[in-house]
Amino acid sequence: MTASHNSERERLYGPLRAEGVFTWDRMYGEEYALADIRLVTDEFRQELSYATSQLDRVFAKAVPVLQKADDTLLLELGVPEPALRAVRTVIPQVPATVVGRFDFAQTTEGLKMLEYNSDTPTGIVEAFCVNEYACRFFGRKNPNRGMEQGIARAFQNMLEAYRRQGYQTEHIWFSSLDWHEEDKGTTLYLLKKSGLPARFAGLEQLRVCEDRLYVLDGEDLTPVDVLYRLHALEKLAGERDEDGYPTGAHVLQLIADKKLAIINPPSAFLLQSKAIQALIWNLHEADEFLTHEEHGIISSYMLPTYFENRFAGAAPYVTKPVFGREGGGVALFDADGTVAEKDQEEFYWDQQMMYQKRVELPVVTVSTSDGQREGRLLWGSFLIGGEPSAIIARVGGPITNNMSYYLPVGIKE
Predict the structure, then answer these.
(1) Torsion, Cα of 266, 80, 175, 345 (10° steps)
(2) Residue 375 exposed, middle or buried by CB count within 10 Å (0-12, 13-18, 19+)
(3) Per-residue pLDDT at 54 exceeds 90
(4) Which residues pair with 393 in a beta bridge?
(5) Whether 392 contacts 140, CB under 8 Å
(6) Is residue 319 within 8 Å of 274, Cβ to Cβ?
C-alpha cells in the first residue's frame, strides 16, 4: 500500500495507541484495525437493534426454564458438571446478561443470527470508543454515539440487584489475563465506564482460600465480593492449581453458595451454549412454549440449528462446538459433506458439535496496508443491560476468527 495510506492509518490509530485506550490496532504483528469505514443506512442500523432486542426476548425466556431443568438436560447442552449448581443461581429483576453480543450475517433472506456471545464478548472498545474516533476522522455520523453511557447503568443495576439479594458488594474487582493485551484493555475500559469503585487484577492473582475468593495484592490477600471476569466459565470449570487442586470448581461452588457475585451473571453462561440455539429451534419447529410473535422472530432472524446432522445430502451446513469462540472448531460443509472451509486452530474440536444451516457472508472490499482486499463481512450487535446498543463490523474469511479485521462503521447520509 502507499505510504500515504500508512500515514493516514497512523493518524487515526496512533493517538489512541499513545493514550493507552486502544493498543491492539495491530495484533501478533498483523494489521487488525482498518483505516477504512463501512457506511450503513439508518434503516439497517435500526433493524440490527430491533433484531437484537427481539432475539434477547426469546433467549431470556429460556433462562428460568433451563435453571429449573434437571442435570441431564444441562449436561446435554454442554454445561460442565462443576457449573451445574452455579448456573441455577437466580438474580431476580435483572437481564440474563449485562454485556452480550449477537453476531449476524446480512444475507439475501435478511439478517440471520449466527451465534450469541452472551458471556465474554470482546470488540467492546472498538464499538463503544474507537468507532467514535474513526467517524470523526472520516467525517461521518457515528451509529454508536452516546451508547457507552449504558455500560454504567447496566453494571450499577447489576450491583444493586446483588445487594438486594444480600450479597456482600464492598470489594469489587475486574479481572482478565494480565498478559493478554486485548482482554486486559477491554476489561480496563469496562472498569472505567462502569463507574464502580473497582480495581483490576490479573486472573493469575486470584486465590481461593478458606472458602472465599481473594486477590493476591502484593503480599496481602484482599477479598473479592464482586468479580467481573473476561474469562469463560467453561474454562474456569476445568482449571486446577499447580498442586492439582480444582480451583475452578471451587470458585463455581462459591458462586452457587452466593459467596461470590459475578458479572456477567451465571445465566449469561447458560445462553452462551450454541446448543441453546438448537433447543430454541426445536421448540419452534415443534410449535411449543413460544408465542405466535416469538415464532415470527425465530423464523425471521434465526437459522435452523440441530443436535444432529439433518442437512447431509440436502443443504450446505456448518458445524460449531457448543462453547467455541472466535471461529474456533468451526467447519463449513457443502451439501454432499465436502469440507469447504475449516478452522485451523487446535482448540474446541473435542466439544459436542451443533449443526446449523450455512449462509454466505457478503463479500466486501476494504483498504488495508497491503492494498485493496476482499473479505467476508460479519455484523456484531451488542446487548447492554437488556438494551440493544453499539454495533461492530468484522471482515475476514468465510469463518470469522480472532484475526479478522475490525472495520469502523458510519451512517450513510
Answers:
(1) -130
(2) buried
(3) yes
(4) 379, 407
(5) no
(6) no
Q: How many CB atoms lie within 10 A of CB 78?
A: 20
Residue pointed to by grid coordinates 486485548: 182
Rounded CA-CA distance 188/190 in Å is 5
In whole angstroms, give the CA distance from residue 85 to residue 79. Answer: 10
Report the side by side order of strands in the sheet with 226-229.
198-202, 172-176, 226-229, 261-263
Q: What is the pLDDT of residue 349?
A: 72
Residue with cell 445487594: 163
The per-residue pLDDT for 383 is: 98
Distance between CA 90 and CA 258 in Å, rounded?
A: 10
Cβ-in-10-Å burial (0-12, 13-18, 19+) of 19 comes to exposed
Distance from C-alpha of 38 to C-alpha of 49, rounded to nearest angstrom: 17
The grid coordinates listed for 402 are 480472532
Rounded (to 5) percent helix, strand, coil in the chain: 35, 25, 40
pLDDT band at residue 348 under the 50/70/90 scheme: low
Residue 205 Cα to chain centre, angstroms: 24
Q: Where are the beta strands (DSSP E) in 267-325?
A: 305-306, 317-321
**What is residue 327's predicted lDDT score, i.e. its pLDDT?**
66
Distance, C-alpha 324 to centroid of its chain:
11
Q: How far apart are the first and last CA of the chain?
A: 29
pLDDT digits (tens, 9 = 90+) for 178-195: 999 999 999 999 999 999
For the chain, what is the radius of gyration of the CA atoms?
Answer: 21
DSSP 195-220: --SEEEEEGGGEEEETTEEEEEETTE
- In sequence order, what are the beta bridge partners of 172? 198, 226
**Which amino acid is it at 246?**
P
